[in-house]
Amino acid sequence: MQAFFTLLSKIEKDQFSPFYLLSGTESYYLDAVLASLISKLVDEASRNFDFTLFFGKEANASEVIETAKRYPMIAKYNLVVVKEAQQMSSSTFDELAFYATKPLNQSIVVLCYMHKAFDKRKKLFKAVEKMGEVLTVRPLYENQITKWISDHARSLQLNLTPTAIELLSSYVGANLSRLSDELKKIKLVVQKNEIIDKGAIEKYVGISKIFNTFELQKAIGLGKFSLAFQITQYLNRNQKTYPLVLVLSSLHSYFQKLLILKTVVDDSKSAFGSIGISPYFIKEYEAAAKRFSVREICDAMRYIFEADLKNKGIFGVNSGSNEILEILLLRLFTL
To answer: What CATH architecture does domain 2-137 belong to?
Structure first.
Protein backbone atom coordinates (compact mmCIF):
# COMPACT_ATOMS: atom_id res chain seq x y z
CA MET A 1 0.00 0.00 0.00
CA GLN A 2 2.55 2.54 -1.22
CA ALA A 3 -0.05 5.31 -1.58
CA PHE A 4 -0.82 5.03 2.14
CA PHE A 5 2.81 5.40 3.21
CA THR A 6 3.36 8.25 0.74
CA LEU A 7 0.38 10.11 2.19
CA LEU A 8 1.55 9.56 5.77
CA SER A 9 4.99 10.84 4.79
CA LYS A 10 3.49 14.04 3.37
CA ILE A 11 1.48 14.62 6.55
CA GLU A 12 4.56 14.01 8.69
CA LYS A 13 6.40 16.67 6.65
CA ASP A 14 3.48 19.14 7.12
CA GLN A 15 2.61 18.94 3.43
CA PHE A 16 -1.16 19.26 3.85
CA SER A 17 -3.93 19.37 1.26
CA PRO A 18 -7.22 21.29 1.62
CA PHE A 19 -9.36 18.19 0.98
CA TYR A 20 -8.86 14.47 1.71
CA LEU A 21 -11.15 11.77 0.34
CA LEU A 22 -10.40 8.51 2.18
CA SER A 23 -12.31 5.39 1.18
CA GLY A 24 -12.08 1.61 1.01
CA THR A 25 -12.66 -1.67 2.79
CA GLU A 26 -9.72 -1.62 5.21
CA SER A 27 -10.52 0.77 8.05
CA TYR A 28 -7.04 0.52 9.60
CA TYR A 29 -5.46 2.64 6.85
CA LEU A 30 -8.22 5.26 6.93
CA ASP A 31 -8.10 5.50 10.73
CA ALA A 32 -4.30 5.83 10.64
CA VAL A 33 -4.38 8.73 8.16
CA LEU A 34 -7.09 10.51 10.13
CA ALA A 35 -5.25 9.99 13.42
CA SER A 36 -2.07 11.38 11.87
CA LEU A 37 -3.86 14.50 10.61
CA ILE A 38 -5.55 15.14 13.98
CA SER A 39 -2.26 14.63 15.81
CA LYS A 40 -0.55 17.17 13.56
CA LEU A 41 -3.30 19.77 13.34
CA VAL A 42 -5.18 19.68 16.65
CA ASP A 43 -4.01 20.38 20.19
CA GLU A 44 -5.89 20.96 23.44
CA ALA A 45 -5.93 24.73 22.98
CA SER A 46 -7.48 24.62 19.49
CA ARG A 47 -9.69 21.52 19.78
CA ASN A 48 -12.84 23.39 20.79
CA PHE A 49 -12.36 26.16 18.22
CA ASP A 50 -10.71 24.81 15.09
CA PHE A 51 -11.78 21.16 14.94
CA THR A 52 -15.26 20.01 13.92
CA LEU A 53 -16.43 16.40 13.66
CA PHE A 54 -19.50 15.43 11.62
CA PHE A 55 -21.12 12.04 11.08
CA GLY A 56 -22.49 11.26 7.64
CA LYS A 57 -25.97 10.25 8.73
CA GLU A 58 -26.59 13.59 10.44
CA ALA A 59 -24.44 15.96 8.40
CA ASN A 60 -25.58 17.97 5.41
CA ALA A 61 -23.45 19.64 2.76
CA SER A 62 -24.30 23.23 3.72
CA GLU A 63 -23.16 22.69 7.35
CA VAL A 64 -19.89 21.08 6.28
CA ILE A 65 -19.17 23.79 3.71
CA GLU A 66 -20.04 26.68 6.05
CA THR A 67 -17.78 25.18 8.72
CA ALA A 68 -14.99 24.77 6.17
CA LYS A 69 -15.31 28.44 5.19
CA ARG A 70 -14.55 29.60 8.73
CA TYR A 71 -11.12 31.01 9.47
CA PRO A 72 -9.16 29.28 12.25
CA MET A 73 -9.14 31.11 15.59
CA ILE A 74 -6.08 29.57 17.26
CA ALA A 75 -4.55 26.88 15.07
CA LYS A 76 -3.01 27.38 11.65
CA TYR A 77 -5.79 25.33 10.00
CA ASN A 78 -9.48 24.75 10.56
CA LEU A 79 -9.95 20.95 10.49
CA VAL A 80 -13.32 19.55 9.39
CA VAL A 81 -13.83 15.77 9.55
CA VAL A 82 -16.79 13.79 8.25
CA LYS A 83 -16.89 10.18 9.48
CA GLU A 84 -19.16 7.49 8.01
CA ALA A 85 -19.50 9.59 4.86
CA GLN A 86 -20.97 6.59 3.00
CA GLN A 87 -24.26 7.43 4.74
CA MET A 88 -24.48 10.79 2.95
CA SER A 89 -26.64 11.25 -0.14
CA SER A 90 -25.40 11.62 -3.71
CA SER A 91 -26.71 15.20 -3.84
CA THR A 92 -24.58 16.01 -0.79
CA PHE A 93 -21.49 14.75 -2.58
CA ASP A 94 -22.31 16.94 -5.57
CA GLU A 95 -22.52 20.03 -3.34
CA LEU A 96 -19.23 19.14 -1.67
CA ALA A 97 -17.71 18.66 -5.14
CA PHE A 98 -18.48 22.28 -5.94
CA TYR A 99 -16.60 23.37 -2.80
CA ALA A 100 -13.73 20.96 -3.55
CA THR A 101 -13.08 22.65 -6.91
CA LYS A 102 -12.06 25.83 -5.03
CA PRO A 103 -11.29 24.80 -1.44
CA LEU A 104 -10.11 27.41 1.03
CA ASN A 105 -6.46 27.12 2.01
CA GLN A 106 -7.05 27.86 5.68
CA SER A 107 -9.29 24.78 6.12
CA ILE A 108 -8.71 21.06 5.73
CA VAL A 109 -11.69 18.82 5.03
CA VAL A 110 -11.39 15.05 5.57
CA LEU A 111 -14.12 12.75 4.23
CA CYS A 112 -13.98 9.16 5.58
CA TYR A 113 -16.02 6.90 3.30
CA MET A 114 -15.99 3.45 4.92
CA HIS A 115 -16.56 -0.17 3.83
CA LYS A 116 -16.26 0.38 0.08
CA ALA A 117 -14.40 2.40 -2.51
CA PHE A 118 -15.76 5.82 -3.46
CA ASP A 119 -17.17 5.92 -6.99
CA LYS A 120 -14.49 7.34 -9.30
CA ARG A 121 -17.17 8.63 -11.66
CA LYS A 122 -18.53 11.07 -9.08
CA LYS A 123 -17.80 14.77 -9.41
CA LEU A 124 -16.41 14.85 -5.89
CA PHE A 125 -13.79 12.19 -6.65
CA LYS A 126 -12.58 14.06 -9.72
CA ALA A 127 -12.50 17.40 -7.90
CA VAL A 128 -10.54 16.07 -4.91
CA GLU A 129 -8.20 14.11 -7.18
CA LYS A 130 -7.29 17.42 -8.82
CA MET A 131 -7.23 19.73 -5.79
CA GLY A 132 -6.52 17.44 -2.84
CA GLU A 133 -5.62 13.88 -1.86
CA VAL A 134 -7.55 10.71 -2.69
CA LEU A 135 -6.74 7.43 -0.92
CA THR A 136 -8.59 4.21 -1.76
CA VAL A 137 -7.59 1.14 0.23
CA ARG A 138 -8.44 -2.55 0.30
CA PRO A 139 -7.67 -5.45 2.67
CA LEU A 140 -4.40 -7.33 2.42
CA TYR A 141 -4.27 -10.68 0.67
CA GLU A 142 -3.84 -13.70 2.95
CA ASN A 143 -0.21 -14.18 1.92
CA GLN A 144 0.60 -10.58 2.92
CA ILE A 145 -0.59 -10.72 6.53
CA THR A 146 2.48 -12.34 8.13
CA LYS A 147 4.78 -9.80 6.43
CA TRP A 148 2.54 -6.97 7.65
CA ILE A 149 2.75 -8.30 11.21
CA SER A 150 6.54 -8.63 10.94
CA ASP A 151 6.95 -5.10 9.54
CA HIS A 152 4.56 -3.52 12.04
CA ALA A 153 6.23 -5.34 14.93
CA ARG A 154 9.60 -4.08 13.74
CA SER A 155 8.28 -0.51 13.63
CA LEU A 156 7.29 -0.94 17.29
CA GLN A 157 10.75 -2.42 18.03
CA LEU A 158 9.27 -5.83 18.80
CA ASN A 159 11.17 -9.00 17.94
CA LEU A 160 8.67 -11.75 17.07
CA THR A 161 9.71 -15.28 16.13
CA PRO A 162 8.19 -16.83 12.95
CA THR A 163 6.01 -19.11 15.11
CA ALA A 164 4.70 -16.12 17.06
CA ILE A 165 3.86 -14.27 13.83
CA GLU A 166 2.09 -17.31 12.36
CA LEU A 167 0.07 -17.88 15.55
CA LEU A 168 -0.99 -14.23 15.75
CA SER A 169 -1.97 -14.27 12.06
CA SER A 170 -3.99 -17.44 12.51
CA TYR A 171 -5.72 -16.16 15.65
CA VAL A 172 -6.60 -12.63 14.54
CA GLY A 173 -6.78 -13.00 10.76
CA ALA A 174 -6.68 -9.99 8.43
CA ASN A 175 -8.13 -7.49 10.91
CA LEU A 176 -5.27 -4.98 10.82
CA SER A 177 -6.75 -2.73 13.50
CA ARG A 178 -6.94 -5.61 15.95
CA LEU A 179 -3.49 -6.89 14.97
CA SER A 180 -2.09 -3.42 15.62
CA ASP A 181 -3.85 -3.24 18.99
CA GLU A 182 -2.51 -6.67 20.02
CA LEU A 183 1.06 -5.68 19.11
CA LYS A 184 0.75 -2.41 21.03
CA LYS A 185 -0.56 -4.37 24.02
CA ILE A 186 2.45 -6.71 23.83
CA LYS A 187 4.75 -3.67 23.59
CA LEU A 188 3.50 -2.49 26.99
CA VAL A 189 4.36 -5.70 28.85
CA VAL A 190 7.57 -7.06 27.33
CA GLN A 191 11.12 -6.03 28.15
CA LYS A 192 13.31 -4.15 25.68
CA ASN A 193 14.97 -6.53 23.15
CA GLU A 194 12.95 -9.48 24.49
CA ILE A 195 12.41 -12.30 21.99
CA ILE A 196 8.65 -12.77 21.66
CA ASP A 197 7.93 -16.42 20.95
CA LYS A 198 4.79 -18.53 20.67
CA GLY A 199 4.52 -18.79 24.46
CA ALA A 200 4.55 -15.02 24.84
CA ILE A 201 1.77 -14.62 22.27
CA GLU A 202 -0.31 -17.25 24.06
CA LYS A 203 0.27 -15.50 27.39
CA TYR A 204 -0.22 -11.86 26.43
CA VAL A 205 -2.84 -12.21 23.70
CA GLY A 206 -4.76 -14.89 25.59
CA ILE A 207 -4.61 -17.82 23.19
CA SER A 208 -4.88 -21.43 24.36
CA LYS A 209 -1.52 -23.21 24.00
CA ILE A 210 -3.01 -26.31 22.37
CA PHE A 211 -6.52 -25.44 21.26
CA ASN A 212 -6.45 -22.73 18.59
CA THR A 213 -6.92 -22.43 14.83
CA PHE A 214 -3.17 -22.59 14.22
CA GLU A 215 -2.93 -25.98 15.95
CA LEU A 216 -6.15 -27.18 14.27
CA GLN A 217 -4.84 -26.67 10.75
CA LYS A 218 -1.55 -28.30 11.78
CA ALA A 219 -3.37 -31.35 13.21
CA ILE A 220 -5.47 -31.69 10.04
CA GLY A 221 -2.43 -31.32 7.80
CA LEU A 222 -0.50 -34.02 9.67
CA GLY A 223 -3.48 -36.38 9.94
CA LYS A 224 -3.95 -36.26 13.72
CA PHE A 225 -7.69 -36.79 13.95
CA SER A 226 -7.96 -37.23 17.73
CA LEU A 227 -6.14 -33.95 18.39
CA ALA A 228 -8.07 -32.13 15.66
CA PHE A 229 -11.36 -33.34 17.16
CA GLN A 230 -10.37 -32.14 20.64
CA ILE A 231 -9.43 -28.73 19.25
CA THR A 232 -12.72 -28.54 17.34
CA GLN A 233 -14.68 -29.21 20.53
CA TYR A 234 -12.75 -26.48 22.34
CA LEU A 235 -13.33 -23.97 19.52
CA ASN A 236 -17.03 -24.77 19.51
CA ARG A 237 -17.22 -24.09 23.25
CA ASN A 238 -15.43 -20.77 22.81
CA GLN A 239 -17.07 -19.29 19.73
CA LYS A 240 -16.85 -15.74 21.05
CA THR A 241 -13.06 -16.00 20.95
CA TYR A 242 -12.96 -18.27 17.89
CA PRO A 243 -15.87 -17.33 15.61
CA LEU A 244 -16.56 -19.93 12.93
CA VAL A 245 -16.01 -17.45 10.10
CA LEU A 246 -12.43 -16.88 11.30
CA VAL A 247 -11.77 -20.62 11.73
CA LEU A 248 -13.00 -21.31 8.20
CA SER A 249 -10.95 -18.46 6.77
CA SER A 250 -7.83 -19.85 8.45
CA LEU A 251 -8.46 -23.36 7.12
CA HIS A 252 -9.16 -22.11 3.60
CA SER A 253 -5.94 -20.11 3.59
CA TYR A 254 -4.03 -23.18 4.83
CA PHE A 255 -5.28 -25.47 2.06
CA GLN A 256 -4.78 -22.71 -0.49
CA LYS A 257 -1.09 -22.61 0.48
CA LEU A 258 -0.91 -26.41 0.23
CA LEU A 259 -2.38 -26.24 -3.27
CA ILE A 260 0.18 -23.68 -4.40
CA LEU A 261 2.91 -25.72 -2.76
CA LYS A 262 1.82 -28.82 -4.71
CA THR A 263 1.97 -27.00 -8.02
CA VAL A 264 4.87 -24.57 -7.53
CA VAL A 265 7.94 -25.16 -9.67
CA ASP A 266 10.33 -22.86 -7.81
CA ASP A 267 11.12 -24.39 -4.41
CA SER A 268 13.38 -21.55 -3.20
CA LYS A 269 12.77 -19.85 0.13
CA SER A 270 11.74 -16.65 -1.63
CA ALA A 271 9.07 -18.56 -3.54
CA PHE A 272 7.65 -19.92 -0.29
CA GLY A 273 7.68 -16.43 1.19
CA SER A 274 5.71 -15.07 -1.75
CA ILE A 275 2.77 -17.34 -0.85
CA GLY A 276 2.91 -16.48 2.84
CA ILE A 277 4.86 -19.48 4.16
CA SER A 278 7.72 -18.65 6.50
CA PRO A 279 10.91 -20.68 5.88
CA TYR A 280 10.50 -21.82 9.47
CA PHE A 281 7.37 -23.82 8.49
CA ILE A 282 8.45 -25.17 5.10
CA LYS A 283 9.03 -28.74 6.30
CA GLU A 284 5.71 -28.81 8.10
CA TYR A 285 3.83 -27.63 5.01
CA GLU A 286 5.74 -30.03 2.77
CA ALA A 287 4.81 -32.95 5.05
CA ALA A 288 1.15 -31.92 4.95
CA ALA A 289 1.23 -31.44 1.16
CA LYS A 290 2.47 -35.01 0.70
CA ARG A 291 -0.63 -36.37 2.45
CA PHE A 292 -3.02 -34.84 -0.08
CA SER A 293 -3.38 -34.98 -3.83
CA VAL A 294 -4.26 -31.83 -5.76
CA ARG A 295 -7.81 -33.09 -6.16
CA GLU A 296 -8.15 -33.76 -2.41
CA ILE A 297 -6.93 -30.25 -1.62
CA CYS A 298 -9.44 -28.79 -4.09
CA ASP A 299 -12.20 -30.88 -2.48
CA ALA A 300 -11.12 -29.65 0.96
CA MET A 301 -11.36 -26.04 -0.17
CA ARG A 302 -14.79 -26.72 -1.64
CA TYR A 303 -15.98 -28.30 1.64
CA ILE A 304 -14.73 -25.28 3.58
CA PHE A 305 -16.46 -22.92 1.14
CA GLU A 306 -19.73 -24.87 1.52
CA ALA A 307 -19.39 -24.73 5.31
CA ASP A 308 -18.98 -20.97 5.10
CA LEU A 309 -22.11 -20.65 2.93
CA LYS A 310 -24.06 -22.82 5.42
CA ASN A 311 -22.86 -20.65 8.29
CA LYS A 312 -24.16 -17.59 6.45
CA GLY A 313 -27.47 -19.29 5.66
CA ILE A 314 -26.86 -19.19 1.89
CA PHE A 315 -26.37 -22.90 1.19
CA GLY A 316 -28.29 -25.86 2.65
CA VAL A 317 -29.56 -25.80 6.21
CA ASN A 318 -27.70 -23.87 8.87
CA SER A 319 -27.67 -26.46 11.64
CA GLY A 320 -25.51 -24.38 13.95
CA SER A 321 -21.81 -23.57 14.13
CA ASN A 322 -20.95 -26.61 16.23
CA GLU A 323 -22.36 -29.13 13.79
CA ILE A 324 -21.00 -27.29 10.74
CA LEU A 325 -17.43 -27.46 12.06
CA GLU A 326 -17.74 -31.09 13.22
CA ILE A 327 -19.12 -32.23 9.87
CA LEU A 328 -16.40 -30.30 8.05
CA LEU A 329 -13.73 -32.01 10.14
CA LEU A 330 -15.10 -35.46 9.26
CA ARG A 331 -15.20 -34.54 5.56
CA LEU A 332 -11.59 -33.33 5.68
CA PHE A 333 -10.44 -36.58 7.26
CA THR A 334 -12.30 -38.73 4.70
CA LEU A 335 -10.98 -37.11 1.55
So the answer is: 3-Layer(aba) Sandwich (3.40)
